[in-house]
Amino acid sequence: FLLNVGDGDTQLILLPDSPTGRHAIVVDCATSKKLPALVAELGDAGVLPQTPPERKPLFELVVATHPHEDHIGGMPEFLDMFGDHVGEFWEPGYFHTGSTYMEVMRVLEDLESAGHGVRLSQPTIGYTRYIGHVQVMALTPAISLRNRFDTFGIEINNSSIAMRLEFPASRV
């Protein structure tokens, strides 16, 4: 689902059904209203589980492609609502002084302190995650670029995470 949130991005990717139910990936959350409403509607329709099975997150992966407001503006509220149902959180590792970025990091720290165990990752090109038979691979940023985020004039849009999803994917 590509949500129309005005000048910004919010995407919900439904993964293929599995023995533990259907799960999802969130890529960016520009605003705080549309994504939770969509998740609730999908739960009411039986497409997503109302409550995820024990020890299995509803949102296997949540990605903040880069810390601009039009990509993470609603992420703190989303994580406040659903953080205990998130398995892994990807962010590019570009430190940003914006208040929303700081709030996202605070919410993630609170979730860790509360024992919810959201794994925080800063993927670079080639970083791969398998979710059932779906392969999720980071295509950017390059390692050399990520190592220069705060120097040599690298700017925030160049830090963006881009990824490829492949289904069905084999781990061999």
How would you sum up this structure in a few lines?
By secondary structure, the protein is α/β, with parallel strands linked by helices.
Number of strands: 8
Beta-sheet strand percentage?
15-25%
Question: What share of the residues lie within helices?
Answer: 10-25%
Low-confidence stretches: none
Indicate the radius of gyration in whole angstroms: 16 Å
Order of helices and strands: EEHEHHEHEEEHE
User: What gap, in angstroms, lies between the N and C termini?
Assistant: 30 Å
The description of the largest β-sheet is: 5 strands, mixed
Anisotropy-based shape: globular
Write the layout of secondary structure elements.
Layout: E1 10-14, E2 24-29, H1 34-44, E3 59-63, H2 69-72, H3 75-82, E4 86-90, H4 99-113, E5 119-121, E6 128-131, E7 134-140, H5 143-146, E8 162-166
Parallel strand pairs: 2-3, 3-4, 4-5
Antiparallel strand pairs: 1-2, 6-7, 7-8
Structure report:
The chain is of the alpha/beta class and 172 residues long. It contains five helices and eight strands. It has helices at 34-44, 69-72, 75-82, 99-113, 143-146; strands at residues 10-14, 24-29, 59-63, 86-90, 119-121, 128-131, 134-140, 162-166. Strands 1-2-3-4-5 form a five-stranded mixed β-sheet. A hairpin with a 2-residue loop joins strand 6 (128-131) and strand 7. Helix 3 runs parallel beside helix 4. It is globular. The two termini are 30 Å apart. The model has no long low-confidence stretch (mean pLDDT 89).
